[in-house]
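tool_call: predict_structure(chain=1)
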Amino acid sequence: MSTDAPETVATTAGALEGRELEWAVNTPELAAEHASINSNIIRTRFPPEPNGYLHFGHAQSMNMNFALSFEKLGVPMENRRTIFRYDDTNPDAESPEYIDSMKRDLEWMGWQPEKTTYSSDNFQTLYELAVKLIKKGLAYVCDMTKPEMEAQRELAKQRCAARAVGTDPDVVAPIPSADILPGRNRDTSVERNLKLFEEMKLGLHDEGTLTLRLKMDFDSPNPNMYDLVAYRIRYTPHPHAGNGWCIYPNYDFTHGICDSLEHIDYSICTLEFETRREPYFWILWALDMYRPKVYEMSRLNVEYTVLSKRRLLKLVNANYVRGWNDPRMPTISGLRRRGYNKQIINNFCNEVGATRSAKVVQMAKLFHVARLTLADTTRRAMAALEPIKVVITNFDEEAGKVGENGMTFEVQNSPTDASLGSHNVTLTGTIYIDSEDFKTEDDPNFYRLTPNKPVGVKYHGGNLICDEIVKDGDKIKMLKCRLDSSEGRPKPKSYITWVSSDGIKCEVRVYGHLFTQPEPSDRWEEELNSESEVIHSNAIIDPSVLELVDKKDVNEWKSNQALQFERLGYFVVDTDTTFDSTTMEGKLVFNRTVSLKEDKTVKKVSSHEEEQQRKRVEQQRAIAAARDIMMTIDPKDLFKLAPEYKDKYSKFDDTGLPTHLADGTELTKSAKKKLEKERAKHAKKFAKNKK
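tool_result:
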C-alpha cells in the first residue's frame, strides 16, 4: 500500500539542522544548480498566512528569519537575504485588510525583505506541477466525502497503532472495503485523473465533490502521509489573485514548492510542523525539485495570552476587545498601540531566543525589557489619574515671597539625558494631586499627604499641609492646604507630583493581563479578566505636553508619543485621540504601557474565587493522576481496567473490544466504532510512553 519511499535516517546536530530524511537529500545536479544561483547568498523566508494580524509568534519568526538564523549560521551581513512571502492559499480566511496590516507591521518592525512575494503568484506553476504528479502516477482525483476521508484516516491510524504494539492490524482494524482503504480512486488511470482535474479547474464540479490527493503512504506512522489533499474546489474570489481560479492548493502542497522556486536555503517553522517534514520533502522529492534545509523551533508562548488565530478571531468578533489592535491583544498592532516600540519587541525576541525547547515566557520579561528601553528615552510629565482638587490658601503670600515667575520651575525632560531638553511647570493657586497620594487618616506606612502629616511638593521644594477636607457626601470635593517654605519646616519623607490648574483633561486607560490564568485553558473564555482595562475618564496632565499630543501626530501605524507619568508609569497617546492642541477641543487618550516598577502586590481574592481556584487545582491533579494510571494500561485491557470504563461493559471480543453493556444490551456498530477510535488513540499514547 505504500509508495516506494526512503526511510528516516539518523538525526544530525548542528546549527539549524533537524531530523533528516533521505527524501531531503538533493541530487548533485540539484545542489550544483542551487549553488550556481545563490552563490554566497544564504536565503530565508518569512511566510505568514494573511488570515489575521501578525502577533508575538510572528515577531519571533521575523527576528529569526531576518537576523538570528544568520547569526547562528555565521553568515556575513552582505550575504543575508530574506523574502517576505504571503502564504495566501485559503481565500475563505484571507482579506485585503490582513494583507495590508502585515505589510505595515513588517515595515514598522524595521525589517527589510529582499522582495515581497505571494504564493498565489505561483498558482499556474503549482497547477502545472500537480499535473506532473498525476502523469507520474503520484496524484489522483478523489470523490470521497469528508466523513469517508475521516474514516479512512482513522482506520489507517488504528492499523498503525496496532502494529506499534505488536498486534495484527487485520484483527484489530480490518479493512471493510478497498473503497475505504486505500480508497476507490487511488488506483484510477492517469487519463481519468487528468480529465477530472481539468474539469475541476474549469469549474464543472461543485465544491466538496472532488479533491486532488497525493499518492503517499497509508502505512506510515505519520498521518500527514495519508494521501494529503493537494487541491480543493472553492468558488471564492482570491484577495490577491482575483477571480481566475476556482481550485486552490493547500498549504502543505504549496509552501515547500514556493521555497524551492524562490531558492530558499533554510525553511524555518515552529515545532508543531515537525511532522509535516515528511510531506514537505516527499513532494519536492516526487517533483525532483531542490530541497531546502528545514529547521523547527519552539513556538513563542507568552503568559496571559493566546496566539491561536481562531481564539484571537473570537476575541475580536465577540467584542471581548476593541479590535485586532486592542492594547491587550498580543498582535504587533496591539503592542504598538499599547506603547511597545520595535526596539522593545525585537529586544524581547532576542532575549527569548529560538530553541527547540517548549516554554512559556513570563510576561514580566516583556515588562522588564520595556522599562529598560523606555527609561532613558521617554520624556517626563506629571499627571493625576484620579485627581483631587487642592486649593492652596496661602498661595498669594508664598508667591509674593519669590516674585514674578518664582512659581515656575525648569524641569529636565529626562534626569539622565540632558540632550532631551527641558520644559517648564508652574505651581498655581489650585492644583490637582492623584487620589493615591492622599489618605483621610494617618498611617505610619503611608508617606504622602494626610491631615496630620505634611508632604513635599515636587520641584517647588516646600511642604504641603492639609488643613481641611471638603466633602460632598462621602466623596472628597477638595482639600484646603497651605504651603510651608519656612527654613525650619520639618523634612518630608516624600514628595508628591501635581498638575497645575490649566492642566489638560484626558482619559487614561490602564491595562492588566487579558486573562486571569498564566496559561489559559480550553475554557479560556471563562478565564478572561474583567479588570484587564481600567479607564480613568477624569485624568489630568501637565500642560507642557500640549504640542506633543495633537491628533495630527497620531497614527495607528507608527509609534505615537510616549511619556513617563512621574511615579505612575510609561504611557502612550492612543489612536482614539481627537484632541486639537490649537482649539483645546476633542478627546485626549493615553494607554499605560507598563508601570515604573514590577507590581509585587498580591491581589485580594474573594472566598468564591479562592474556592474556584482550589477546585481547579484539584481537578488538574486528578486529571494528571488519571493520565498516569492510563499509561500503565495495555490497549487490549483499556475497557476492562481504565477507571472511566470500569464495570461499564459485560462482554468483550477477542481483542478486548466491548460487545455488550453491563446490563447485557448489545452495542451498536456505531458505538463499537467509536470505542475502536478511543482504543487507537490510547494505543498511540501507550506506545509513545513506553519508548
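agent: DSSP finds 18 helices and 29 strands in the chain. Proceeding to next step.
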